[in-house]
Amino acid sequence: PSVHPIGRWVRRSSQSQCSASRGRLEGGATAQQYEKMAALSSEFGDLVQIKKQLISVISLCKERGLVHSVKWASELAFALKPLPMSELPPPAPLTEEDVEDLDALGLAKSYFDLKEYDRAAYFLRGCRSKKAYFLYMYSRYLSGEKKKDDETVDSLGPLEKGQVRNEALRELRVELSKKHRTGELDGFTLYLYGVVLRKLDLLKEAVDVFVEATHALPLHWGAWLELCNLITNIEMLKSLSLPDCWIRDFFLAHMYTELQMIKEALQKYQSLIEAGFSKSTYIISQIAVAYHNIRDIDQALSLFNELREQDPYRIENMDTFSNLLYVRSMKPELSYLAHNLVEIDKYRVETCCVIGNYYSLRSQHEKAALYFQRALKLNPRCLGAWTLMGHEYMEMKNTSAAIQAYRHAIEVNKRDYRAWYGLGQTYEILKMHFYCLYYYRRAHQLRPNDSRMLVALGECYEKLSQLSEAKKCYWRAYSVGDVERMALLKLAKLHEQLNESDEAAHCYIIYIQDIFSCGELLEHVEVSTALRYLGQYYFKNKRYDEASLCAQRCCDYNDAREEGKALLRQISQVRDQGEASSADVSLPCVFGSLSNNNTPVRRVSPLDLSSVTP
């Protein structure tokens, strides 16, 4: 069986937006359903207060070594106007315990910054302050993570790396759970406790603890981000009791993007820009990612180029940028990006992924897979690298390795529709169609309005001889906006196979009208197939004028020219014999609405399946 080209959409997709623009955006949710969530926090009216809070939380996170939260808060603070000296927030007051632990904490933090985690933990053993306790526990956690990576990086490949656990996790859980029961954990240690629970696959407990952490310390972005990774659907999101704080709006926007509710995400980010964060590179990058997710390639490329102008040494999100360059086959631009990132930091995960994309575009799949493996050695939880490596193994016909890579991607993030789709594609190649159907269904559940998932489902149903379900899938794929212009063709051929000539003709007619309306007729080889069928269809129904038009159009295509000429001769012979065209007005005409270059007013529905989702 042929490989679906859309299986690689993380980097490949149809460049045509004409058909897709007629479909709905992903997500399926209306703004009214989430009106409460859509409203921005009233705190955005006081940007000075928000700036003060950001400055304060930056200091708190720096003291605890939470570098990613520091970076996120710093980028937001940089996007706001500077505060005069009189408005700067005072440093956090020290408790008696903080003063007692000051020297030990300073020494341990210096070791922590040098990644000597065991050494840092050793000098914090007897400290009593909450700040010192967090750094003590966090050092032990990071020490376990570092040892886990050191043990596996040379001895095992990246496919096995996820099987090794941090040996410190169980001890940390026991100690933190005791303090949690007595209410001794602050916002930072609650966050760490949640991370430990997540690493131990205690996901329900982890969600509860992360929600508690956001209430205890709403401005710590790390807790929100960890919570985001555990939310699987909109119902779960709506069920959570989250603090009413301005940072909640950033979380919801991020969450909408992750749940493929792109319309809602873009509305939320636009509201944040209007609230005063128009200069935020974080928001620009998130909007670019959102446009990437709905395949608006031009808009996404424009935003990434703008981002590169504002922040030329940025590496974050550049792997997504390279996906877009890959889709457009922009080899010079992708080569420049890869060389530029190598000069900045050749050992970053994103750099390895960009280089992998570059080699894949040049069809050097072994080299591409090697760079994705390097990315996974640097970060075994890099979702994109797992999925991309699965694609490369598919290109190399190594289905067992591809399955393993896709399964690892799903372990990292069960919301990754590309990995589910990749598994379906792999099992289709192996002709295991019931497995294939299961994985395509999972991909469709994550992207209910993605025509590519529906077309794949339809093909699978066809192979399982469930033709009525296949028809529903193809028509639904067309109704939501057919990205690759294949759904109607497949539906027409299915009707043709079942000798349902009227339905097949309707589908071919709509297909040709859509192609004409976008001005892309000559770019689509399958048009000749449709014209051949319609020519014969009209001829059999004695609609000789329409049959003649179709036959003349067939002469524009090399593969249909002879058949077109033969049909014209047949029509001429019939007319010479004095046989008139049928006056049956019930038969549709393919060129009637397009004779004056008019776009079809509405779609003709051969089947009442527009509301059916398999």
UniProtKB/TrEMBL annotation:
Cdc23 domain mapped to chain residues: 49-288
GO BP annotations, alphabetical order: anaphase-promoting complex-dependent catabolic process; cell division; positive regulation of mitotic metaphase/anaphase transition; protein ubiquitination
Keyword Cell division among UniProt keywords: yes
InterPro entries associated with the record: APC8 (IPR007192), TPR-like_helical_dom_sf (IPR011990), TPR_rpt (IPR019734)
Stored SUPFAM superfamilies: TPR-like
Family recorded in the similarity comment: Belongs to the APC8/CDC23 family.
PROSITE patterns recorded: TPR
Protein name: Cyclosome subunit 8
TPR repeats: 281-314, 349-382, 383-416
Pathway membership, UniProt: Protein modification; protein ubiquitination
Gene Ontology annotations for the cellular component aspect, listed alphabetically: anaphase-promoting complex
PANTHER family per record: CELL DIVISION CYCLE 16,23,27 (PTHR12558), CELL DIVISION CYCLE PROTEIN 23 HOMOLOG (PTHR12558:SF10)
Pfam families per record: ANAPC8, TPR_11, TPR_8
Sorted UniProt keywords: Cell cycle, Cell division, Mitosis, Repeat, TPR repeat, Ubl conjugation pathway
